[in-house]
Amino acid sequence: MSALLRPYGDATGDGRVQLSFTLPIASSERARQAALELARKMGFAEPQVVHMKEMGPDFSFFIVYGATAHSVDPAGLTVAEPDFPLLPSPEINRIIRDSLKRQLVVVGACTGTDAHTLGLDAILSMKGFAGDKGLEYWQEMRIVNMGAQVSPGEIVAAVDEHAADAVLVSQVVTQRDAHIFHLQEVHAALTEAGLRDRLILVGGGPRFSPDQAPALGFDRIFGRGTKPSEVASYLAWKVGRRAGLSEADLTRAATLA
Amino acid sequence: MRTSAPFFRPLGRLRIDEGVLAECRELATEIAAPVDHLAATHTTTSIERACLRLVGVDGIEGRGVEAVPIPNRVVDEIGASVGLERGALIPFFDAVASCGGDIDAAADAIAGRALTPRWPQGADRDDAARRAKEAAAAAVNCIEAAATARRDVVERVGEAERPWLYLIVATGDIHEDIPQAQAAARNGADVIAVIRSTGQSLLDYVPFGATSEGFAGTYATQENFRLMRAALDEVGEELGRYVRLTNYASGLCMPEIAAMAGMERLDMMLNDCMYGIMFRDINMQRTFIDQHFSRMVHALAGIVINTGEDNYLTTADAVDSAHTVLASQFLNERFAFTAGLSEEQMGLGHAFEIDPDVPDQILLELAHAQLIRECFPNAPLKYMPPTKHMTGNIFQGFLYDGMFNLIAALTGQDIVLLGMMTEGIHTPFLSDRDLALENARYIFGGAAGLGGELRYEAGGAVERRAAQVLEECRQMLRKVADIGMFAAIEAGMFADTVRTPAGGKGLAGVVQRAPGYVNPVADELSRRLGIGA
User: Fold this and answer.
1) B285-308 burial by CB neighbour count: b if 16+ within 10 A, else e?
2) Do A117 and B387 count as a contact with CB atoms less than 8 A apart?
3) How confident is residue A206, by pLDDT bands cut at 50, 70 and 90?
4) Which of A78, A93, B206, B405 fits a 20 to 30 Å CA distance from B38?
C-alpha cells in the first residue's frame, strides 16, 4: 500500500483537480487552446476547459479540470512546529481572564525618530489589518497606544503608570540598523528600571525576523505581514503559561498555525 | 441590468410602532445638540486648511517624503504668529493684499517665512475681510457648480438604474486603478470606490499629485480624484450611463478631503459621525467638529454620504448588536440634517454579517434590512456584504454573497457593495469582480419584481424581530441621551470601545473660537444651505 497522495476526484488515484484563471486575451478558440496548453504545462493530463467567459474586450476567464501527474509523500515533509498556538477570539479573552482575573494591559509605541505608526496602529487599533481586528477588539485587553517618537524613558513611565503587562515596540524605518538599536534601547531602559522581568516584551516591523528575539532580549519578534490575532494569541498564551495554566488548557481550542 | 420591474423601495410591509420611531428621532436630536454646539464654537487645523484649499491654496514645499503641503505650512505659520482662534482666512487675505492680490504668492511667502502673518487692523482688516468674502463666494460657487455639472452630465449621458452596484479598486497605483475601474464599469459597476492607502486616515496632511505607491490602496489626492473622475466620465459616455466615484472623507483630514471631493465632482463620500473615533482612535472633539464642516461641503456639492454602521457588526455580534446600527443611523441622520444634507444624500450604512450558523439567520437579515428600509424611506441605503464569516471557502462565500444580494433586492437597498468570494484572502482578482457582477445580475434580474409582492405575517417572526431591534435601539438612545454623547462614548457604549474626550489623535488641532472668529467659507456654505454655521 503506497503512502503517496494524489488528489481524489471521484476515484482513488484519479488525480483530478479543478482550477480557474484569467488570461489577458479576447475569448476565442485560440484563447481556449491557450488555456488548455497552459494546463498541460502545469502538469495536468487531458485538461478540459469547462467554462470560458469573456470579461470585456481584453480578458477571458477559464474554469479547467485536469488530472495531475504528481503525487506527494506526506511522511517525507518537514513541518515547522509553531512556537505558540493560534487561538480563537473567545479563547484569548478566556485565557486572559483565567490567568490575570483582570484586563491585560498593553503599552505600544514607535520609538526613536520613526514617525511611522502604520504598523503599530494596524496591530493595536480596532480597525486592525487585513480583515483582522486589532488588539483593542479583545475586551480583556486594555491598550495604551503612545504613538510615534516615544522615548524609552516615556515607555518606562507608562509601564509604571498603567501597570502594564506587555510592551509592544514597532519599528518601520531601518536606516543604519536603527530598528535594532531602538529595540536594544527599550530593553536596556526597562531592565534598568527593574521592570523587564515582569513584562512580555514584543518587537515588530517589516525588517525583523522572529529569530532575532533572543539576541535583542525580547520575548518575541514579529515580522512583515503579522496579523493582530497572531500577536493577541501570543500574548494570551504567554500570560497563560506564566500563570501556570496547563498546555492542554491553553491549546484546547487552538488551530494549527 | 434587465429586470421586469423598476427599482422601488418597499414600504409599509412591517407594522412599525410610529411612537417608538418618533421617540428615537427626538432622542437623536437631543443627543446631537451639544455636539453641534461644539462644532459651532470650535475650528480645527484641517477645517482652516480646507478653507484655504477652497480659495485656491495648493502645492507642496520640499520633495519626496519630506514634502509638506502648502496649506499645512500656511496654517502652521498663522497658528504660530497670530493663532487660529479667529480663523486663518483674515490673516491670509491680509497677506494676499500685501502680495498684490496674488493668492499663490501670498501662500508661498508665508510658507517660505518671507512674510509673517498678522491680524490686520482698521482699513487693512476691512480690506482682508472683503477679499476673503469674495474668494469664499467664488469657492462656494465652485462647489455648487459640481452639483450642477453632475446633474447636467447625468441628464446628457443617462442615469444608472438602481440598485447601484458598487465595486472597489485598490491597486495602490492610480494609473493601474483607472483601467481596472473602467473594466468594472463596462462589466456593470455603477459606483467605483478607490480604497485609500492603509493609514492615510492618520496622516495630518493630504499627499499631493498623482500617486503610484500605496499600501493596499491608493492615496486620496486631488490629482488622483481628477484623473479618476475624468476616466469614469469617459467610460460613462461610452456606456450611456453615469458612473459614480467614491472616496473617503474620514480621518484627520476629513474636511480637506471633502473640499477636494467637492471641487473634483466626486459623487459619494464615506463620511461617518463616529467611525474615526471608534475605529481609528481619532479624538472625538476633532471628529465631531470636522464631520460638521465636511457635511456642509458634501451637502452643497450634491454628494451622497455613506455612513459606516457596517463596521459595528464586524467587531460586535450582528444579532446582539443589531440595534447599535440603527441607533448610529438615527445619529448620523440627525448630524446630516443639521449640516444641510437632504434625505436623498444620506447613504446610511448597514451590513449582512450574521453568523451563518445562527438558526434563521436569513430571516433575521431580512427583518433587519426591511426595518431600516421602513425607518428611512427616503434615504439611499448602502448595504454591505458579508466579510466576517467569509472563511476562505470561496464556494460557500459565493453563496453568502448571493443571499446578500437577494435580501438587498427584496428590501429595496439603493447602493449595494458587491461581495467578493475571495474576501479576506487577497485584493480582488479581475475575475472575482466579474463573478460578483454575474451573481448580482442574476439575483437582481430575477428578484427585483419579487420585493413588491412580499408581505410579512402580521405578528410573525420578521415583524417581531424588527420590533425588538427598534425597541432596543430606543433604549440605547435613551441611555445615551441621559448621560450625553461624550460620556456614552467614554462608557464604551458604541462598538464596545472606550474613548475619552481628550484622548486619541488630533486633539492638538482643535481650537476654540474666540469672539471675532471669521470664516467666510463656512458662513457662505451655511447661508446657501439655510442652516446655522
Assistant:
1) bbbbbbbbbbbbbbbbbbbbbbbb
2) no
3) confident
4) B206
Complex ipTM: 0.87
Contact state of A61 with B431 under an 8 Å Cβ cutoff: yes
- Give the closest of A55, A126, A127 to B434, CB-based: A55
Domain map (residue ranges) of chain A:
16-74, 89-250
Q: Is A126 within 8 Å of B387 when comparing Cβ atoms?
A: no
DSSP helix/strand/coil, B44: strand
Among A18, A60, A126, the residue to mutate for chain B (most B Cβ within 10 A): A126
pLDDT average, residue stretch A229-253 = 87
What is residue B65's predicted lDDT score, i.e. its pLDDT? 66
For A176-208, letters b (16+ CB in 10 Å) and e give: eeebbebbebbbebbeeeebbeeebbbbbbbeb
Nearest CA in chain A to B281: A125
- CA A56 to chain B, closest CA, distance in angstroms equals 7
Picking from A117, A130, A137, the nearest residue to B202 by CB comes out as A117
* Domain A16-74, CATH: 3.30.30.60
Residue range B460-482, pLDDT digits in tens: 999 999 999 999 999 999 999 99
Domain A89-250 has CATH 3.20.20.70: no
Task: Report the 10 Å Cβ neighbour count for B11.
Answer: 13
- State the nearest Cα–Cα gap between B346 and chain A, in angstroms: 23
Torsion A207-A212-A216-A217 (CA) sign: positive
Q: Which domains does chain B have, with CATH numbers?
A: 18-34+267-474 (3.20.20.440), 42-138 (no CATH)
pLDDT at A74 over 80: yes
